[in-house]
Amino acid sequence: xxxxxxxxxxxxxxxxxxxxxxxxxxxxxxxxxxxxxxxxxxxxxxxxxxxxxxxxxxxxxxxxxxxxxxxxxxxxxxxxxxxxxxxxxxxxxxxxxxxxxxxxxxxxxxxxxxxxxxxxxxxxxxxxxxxxxxxxxxxxxxxxxxxxxxxxxxxxxxxxxxxxxxxxxxxxxxxxxxxxxxxxxxxxxxxxxxxxxxxxxxxxxxxxxxxxxxxxxxxxxxxxxxxxxxxxxxxxxxxxxxxxxxxxxxxxxxxxxxxxxxxxxxxxxxxxxxxxxxxxxxxxxxxxxxxxxxxxxxxxxxxxxxxxxxxxxxxxxxxxxxxxxxxxxxxxxxxxxxxxxxxxxxxxxxxxxxxxxxxxxxxxxxxxxxxxxxxxxxxxxxxxxx
Length: 386
Fold this sequence. Notes:
By secondary structure, this protein is α/β, with parallel strands linked by helices. Helices cover 43% and strands 20% of the residues. The chain starts with a helix and ends with a helix.
């Protein structure tokens, strides 16, 4: 009897693994949650089309989202956007709650940076609140040089994996006595394990050879010490992957002087924000790379440096590439690989071959020039396909 039960479980496991090999990342995320055993809301998928929450955010966000809609329309991407606007001046959380409900329903979102103008301690950062509420515990930024784009360093290919919901972003502050503010940094064993395992699994799946843990455990011996200790313990389960660690101060210097020593970098929340911006600056600025936020059930895609860009809003000079790359990553996650490749190739031809670039990349073209070139390449690809 026991042998029969074991045999049935083995067959079921084999069937699950075979099915997983044909699933998109979106399907895997919803059908095989790793940690939190929640009852998921049914996936919003209608006739092969995905419903996706769109959060335009502030500053240049709304105009960049319009470019995404235009490009998707010409590429024929099977995505319908549910647009949710959040007023940065609002002191209540009604719109935030609606946005979170929408993401839970759709499973996937694309967002701009949402400004929180209120300085009241009662009003949370909308961006942090969304990540925490949806348990998007890991942020992933693929920092890869664009051929032909003038930059301070060439041939960079670094994967930054950042703990996304804890650390200094726990938003736990209080004024213990007048003029003395205490801010609590939170690091937990469970989240450190999840991020470490995610990093090593990614390295193994993608043929990466080394993972570097970034920390400040020499000073923050308990919090960063726990993160470092956990990463070292998990590293022992992956003997095929080299593991080392580096203090955040030295890391920033090494990134500027010799970035090619890094392969996969893993770190806590605040260090991830700093390192992401440093690397983006090295390869061309804030307008190129996209960031991917993953939890066990939901995913959000956004520009990599999370800049609002208020100073250049409405001037038709904002670089649309980071947001368009976020939309490509979203399509790949949903399993629409053909549409993702179509848009990605159009972006690369525009930037790297035609040299049509906005001022932040040393060009003289407008945002709409760049988008129009991408659309033209998409249309030409469709003609060649016929």
